[in-house]
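User: quick one, fold this
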Amino acid sequence: MYDADCLEKIGANVKFLRTMRKLRQQDVAQTLGISQTHLSNMECGRVKFSLKQLLRLANLFDCQLECFFDPRQAANVAVGGTEQDKRYTQSDMELLLTLVKKSGQPAANKRHCFIQWWKS
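Assistant:
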Protein backbone atom coordinates (compact mmCIF):
# COMPACT_ATOMS: atom_id res chain seq x y z
CA MET A 1 0.00 0.00 0.00
CA TYR A 2 1.19 3.48 -0.77
CA ASP A 3 1.03 6.43 1.58
CA ALA A 4 2.54 9.90 1.98
CA ASP A 5 5.81 8.39 3.22
CA CYS A 6 6.54 6.88 -0.18
CA LEU A 7 6.30 10.35 -1.75
CA GLU A 8 9.20 11.48 0.43
CA LYS A 9 11.32 8.60 -0.87
CA ILE A 10 10.98 9.47 -4.55
CA GLY A 11 13.91 11.89 -4.58
CA ALA A 12 16.16 9.48 -2.70
CA ASN A 13 15.26 6.64 -5.07
CA VAL A 14 15.89 8.82 -8.12
CA LYS A 15 19.28 9.82 -6.71
CA PHE A 16 20.08 6.17 -5.96
CA LEU A 17 19.18 5.06 -9.49
CA ARG A 18 21.08 7.98 -11.02
CA THR A 19 24.24 7.28 -9.06
CA MET A 20 24.06 3.54 -9.69
CA ARG A 21 23.82 4.26 -13.42
CA LYS A 22 26.78 6.65 -13.05
CA LEU A 23 24.82 9.56 -14.49
CA ARG A 24 25.59 13.15 -13.56
CA GLN A 25 22.85 15.41 -12.24
CA GLN A 26 23.54 17.74 -15.15
CA ASP A 27 22.81 15.00 -17.70
CA VAL A 28 19.60 13.84 -16.02
CA ALA A 29 18.45 17.43 -15.54
CA GLN A 30 18.98 18.11 -19.22
CA THR A 31 16.84 15.08 -20.10
CA LEU A 32 14.08 16.44 -17.84
CA GLY A 33 14.42 19.97 -19.18
CA ILE A 34 15.31 21.46 -15.79
CA SER A 35 18.42 22.89 -14.17
CA GLN A 36 20.92 20.80 -12.23
CA THR A 37 20.07 22.82 -9.10
CA HIS A 38 16.38 22.03 -9.50
CA LEU A 39 17.13 18.30 -9.83
CA SER A 40 19.31 18.50 -6.72
CA ASN A 41 16.41 20.08 -4.81
CA MET A 42 14.08 17.35 -6.09
CA GLU A 43 16.45 14.58 -5.00
CA CYS A 44 16.71 16.16 -1.54
CA GLY A 45 12.92 16.36 -1.22
CA ARG A 46 12.67 20.15 -1.27
CA VAL A 47 10.79 20.14 -4.60
CA LYS A 48 8.26 17.58 -5.84
CA PHE A 49 8.47 15.65 -9.11
CA SER A 50 5.71 16.02 -11.70
CA LEU A 51 4.15 12.96 -13.27
CA LYS A 52 5.67 13.93 -16.63
CA GLN A 53 9.14 14.05 -15.03
CA LEU A 54 8.63 10.64 -13.43
CA LEU A 55 7.62 9.18 -16.79
CA ARG A 56 10.74 10.60 -18.41
CA LEU A 57 12.88 9.21 -15.59
CA ALA A 58 11.22 5.80 -15.89
CA ASN A 59 12.18 5.75 -19.57
CA LEU A 60 15.69 7.00 -18.84
CA PHE A 61 16.28 4.36 -16.17
CA ASP A 62 14.32 1.73 -18.12
CA CYS A 63 12.06 0.89 -15.18
CA GLN A 64 8.47 1.06 -14.02
CA LEU A 65 7.17 4.02 -12.02
CA GLU A 66 6.80 1.85 -8.94
CA CYS A 67 10.56 1.71 -8.47
CA PHE A 68 10.51 5.40 -7.49
CA PHE A 69 8.16 4.63 -4.61
CA ASP A 70 9.74 1.38 -3.41
CA PRO A 71 13.46 1.27 -2.50
CA ARG A 72 13.53 -2.51 -3.01
CA GLN A 73 12.38 -2.16 -6.59
CA ALA A 74 14.85 0.68 -7.15
CA ALA A 75 17.64 -1.55 -5.88
CA ASN A 76 16.48 -4.36 -8.16
CA VAL A 77 16.52 -2.05 -11.18
CA ALA A 78 19.94 -0.71 -10.18
CA VAL A 79 21.45 -4.20 -10.25
CA GLY A 80 19.95 -5.26 -13.53
CA GLY A 81 16.17 -5.09 -13.43
CA THR A 82 13.55 -7.73 -14.00
CA GLU A 83 11.54 -9.10 -16.90
CA GLN A 84 8.63 -6.96 -15.78
CA ASP A 85 10.49 -3.70 -16.34
CA LYS A 86 9.32 -1.96 -19.46
CA ARG A 87 9.67 1.33 -21.21
CA TYR A 88 6.69 3.64 -21.46
CA THR A 89 5.79 4.33 -25.06
CA GLN A 90 4.57 7.70 -26.27
CA SER A 91 1.03 6.31 -26.48
CA ASP A 92 1.30 5.01 -22.87
CA MET A 93 2.35 8.47 -21.72
CA GLU A 94 -0.43 10.20 -23.66
CA LEU A 95 -3.05 7.79 -22.32
CA LEU A 96 -1.80 8.20 -18.77
CA LEU A 97 -1.81 11.99 -18.94
CA THR A 98 -5.31 11.94 -20.43
CA LEU A 99 -6.55 9.67 -17.64
CA VAL A 100 -4.97 11.84 -14.96
CA LYS A 101 -6.47 15.02 -16.41
CA LYS A 102 -9.92 13.43 -16.63
CA SER A 103 -9.77 11.87 -13.18
CA GLY A 104 -10.25 15.14 -11.33
CA GLN A 105 -8.79 13.50 -8.25
CA PRO A 106 -6.36 15.16 -5.83
CA ALA A 107 -2.70 14.77 -6.79
CA ALA A 108 -2.06 12.17 -4.05
CA ASN A 109 -4.59 9.81 -5.63
CA LYS A 110 -3.30 10.18 -9.20
CA ARG A 111 -0.32 7.93 -8.54
CA HIS A 112 -2.61 5.22 -7.20
CA CYS A 113 -4.86 5.56 -10.28
CA PHE A 114 -1.87 5.16 -12.56
CA ILE A 115 -0.72 2.00 -10.80
CA GLN A 116 -4.22 0.51 -11.05
CA TRP A 117 -4.39 1.45 -14.74
CA TRP A 118 -0.94 0.06 -15.47
CA LYS A 119 -1.66 -3.29 -13.81
CA SER A 120 -4.93 -3.71 -15.72
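User: anything notable?
Assistant: Confidence is low (pLDDT under 50) at residues 105-111, 116-120.
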